[in-house]
Design brief:
Largest sheet: 2 strands, antiparallel
Mean pLDDT: 94
CATH topology: Aminoglycoside 3'-phosphotransferase, Chain: A, domain 2
CATH architecture: Alpha-Beta Complex
Oligomer: single chain
Structural class: mainly alpha
Number of strands: 8
Helix content: 40-55%
Order of helices and strands: EEHHHEEEEHEEHHH
Number of helices: 7
Number of domains: 1
Distance between the termini: 51 Å
């Protein structure tokens, strides 16, 4: 946009606070949001970087750490990541803001695309239901309940488990292969192992 013959960008800040400690009300709010998002009839022409093909491309670039990823990927290699809805792909708590536990906004749609709903739901679960390395089963069940209610689905733990594991593996390899990333990739490998045993 031009303003007085100069390029300008118009934007606004989302008011509210990023959750520091996630609570039940926030879980309900974000579950309703992702359900609403998945019901939108949007098919943007953006590359799906969350696909199995893209993961395998990242995997092919590894040398020292390749075996620890291959071993885990072989457990879920038959996962179906067919695209079926518009997804956020990165719906971590720090991409949301709340006012008095009411969701006021979600942002960072930079890599949103037409992708797989179970993957997107799993990213939300893995990022919102862990406090350090303790998995909150109550929050997990609440997300599934709300999501199924608002989308008229019947997703159960058994069917979702491969997607939970894949989301852990995906974000782990993304951290490892991203340039100048200071976040520890082992965090999500550890969460993979926890969920594999727990669910």
């Amino acid at each position: 946009m031009l303003f007085k013959n100069k390029y300008a960008l118009l934007f606004s800040f989302i008011e509210g606070e990023i959750p520091k400690v996630v609570n039940k009300k926030q879980i309900e709010e974000i579950s309703c949001f992702i359900a609403s998002l998945h019901k939108l009839n949007l098919k943007p022409k953006v590359k799906n970087i969350y696909s199995k093909e893209y993961f395998l491309l990242l995997l092919s670039t590894l040398t020292d750490n390749k075996k620890e990823f291959e071993k885990r990927f072989n457990i879920i290699k038959d996962i179906d990541l067919s695209s079926n809805c518009f997804i956020h792909g990165d719906l971590f708590p720090d991409n949301s803001k709340f006012i008095d536990n009411k969701l006021n906004g979600v942002y960072d749609f930079g890599q949103s695309c037409y992708g797989n709903n179970k993957f997107d739901l799993s990213v939300l679960i893995v990022s919102w239901c862990f406090e350090d390395y303790k998995f909150n089963i109550e929050f997990f069940n609440l997300i599934l309940k709300k999501y199924n209610l608002y989308t008229n689905n019947n997703i159960v733990i058994k069917n979702l488990k491969p997607y939970l594991l894949y989301s852990c593996l995906y974000y782990s390899i993304q951290r490892l292969t991203r340039k100048n990333n200071i976040k520890d990739y082992n965090e999500y490998l550890r969460k993979f192992d926890i969920l594999k045993k727990l669910l």
